[in-house]
Design goal:
Elements (H helix, E strand, L loop, with lengths): L1 E4 L4 H11 L6 E5 L5 E5 L7 E5 L6 H17 L4 E6 L18 H12 L3 E5 L14 E4 L2 H10 L7 E5 L5 H11 L3 E10 L2 E8 L6 E9 L3 H12 L4 E9 L5 H6 L3 E7 L13 E4 L2 H12 L5 H4 L3
Parallel strand pairs: 1-4, 4-5, 5-6, 6-7, 8-9, 8-11, 11-12, 12-13, 13-14
Antiparallel strand pairs: 2-3, 9-10
Length: 312
């Protein structure tokens, strides 16, 4: 087994490396003066089972290009198998055509990965499950929900004193599964999106008055929708408001909005590296390194991975 990483989330890669007892392979990534990415493997990978750890987080295109060039280098170095470990799958929100003459960028990304040399994809909490079908090889789709649920349980956010809230109709299944873990009821925020990164709350379906509300989503980007939902819950009588998601994109004014909001704590995972400017006492980061390390070892040993991503 060989493990490589790009520049998107080296801290996570080092955690995984330590958990597996496998050092990160030596790799040089540099840029020409015009910004072109150059990659050089500094050790042999011929005949090896190779895993590349690289989230396509901001700057998305830079990290995606790094990944593609690493894949090409590995393909030309004759690896036995190359697995892309992409904890956060960028462009996942563009998984279908909503209006005429729009691209399906999530499908384009999988095409690029396969042409560049990816044999297998390991990822966490895709924005849309159908993205698995875009990749013409094995896809192991893991879920961070059990990690988040355990943390919330330890915080005492369970039973009928709490309510799990879906921020939109599309996230009801995700909220229901977390509610089962916490043995709590669910509520739904209905909203409309007049444009990307902007949402308007229309109503809250379910009983939240006098309860501690836990909003669950797959990602938080600018946090405008999240904060609007939190304000609506507060107005409906929720006593405390917590939020959790797998991918803390936290772009633009996100952290400032969260700090100024009724949200007491936002729980995210380290699928995306949290830069210093996004760190806040209100943001709690949980590690997915043990989960990914376990999955990578099972793939390498040709053992079942299914029990790690079963949603039951």
């Amino acid at each position: 087994m060989k493990i490589l990483t790009g520049n998107s989330n080296r801290c996570l890669a080092e955690e995984i490396s330590q958990a597996l007892g496998v050092p990160l392979a030596r790799l040089e990534i540099r840029r020409f003066s015009d910004g072109e990415v150059h990659v050089r493997l500094e050790e042999s990978v011929r005949g090896n089972d190779v895993f590349i750890i690289q989230s396509t987080s901001a700057p998305v295109n830079e990290h995606l290009m790094e990944l593609l060039i690493m894949l090409d280098a590995l393909k030309r170095a004759s690896t036995a198998r190359t697995t892309v470990v992409m904890p956060y799958y960028g462009y996942a929100r563009q998984d279908k055509k909503v209006r005429p003459r729009e691209p399906v960028s999530a499908k384009l990304v999988t095409d690029l990965l396969q042409v560049a040399g990816a044999d297998r994809l390991l990822t966490i909490d895709l924005h849309a499950d159908q993205i698995q079908a875009f990749f013409d090889g094995p896809v192991d789709h893991l879920y961070a929900r059990p990690i988040i649920a355990q943390y919330l349980t330890n915080r005492g956010l369970k039973d009928h004193d709490s309510v799990v809230v879906s921020p939109d109709v599309g996230g009801v299944a995700r909220a229901r599964r977390l509610a089962e873990n916490l043995q709590a009821p669910i509520a739904i925020i209905t909203k409309r999106r007049p444009e990307p990164n902007r949402a308007e709350v229309m109503e809250v379906v379910g009983e939240v008055k006098g309860k501690r509300a836990v909003i669950i989503d797959d990602m938080v980007d600018t946090a405008g929708s999240l904060v609007a939902g939190a304000v609506a819950l507060k107005e409906m009588g929720a006593t405390q408001i917590f939020a959790c998601c797998t991918h803390g994109v936290l772009s633009g004014p996100a952290v400032k909005r969260i700090e100024d909001s009724p949200i007491e704590e936002l729980v995210v995972t380290n699928t995306i590296r949290l830069p210093e400017e996004c760190q806040s006492p209100k943001v709690k980061v949980l590690s997915v390194a043990p989960l990914l390390a376990d999955a990578m070892l099972r793939i390498h040993d040709n053992r079942s991975v299914s029990e790690l991503f079963t949603e039951g």
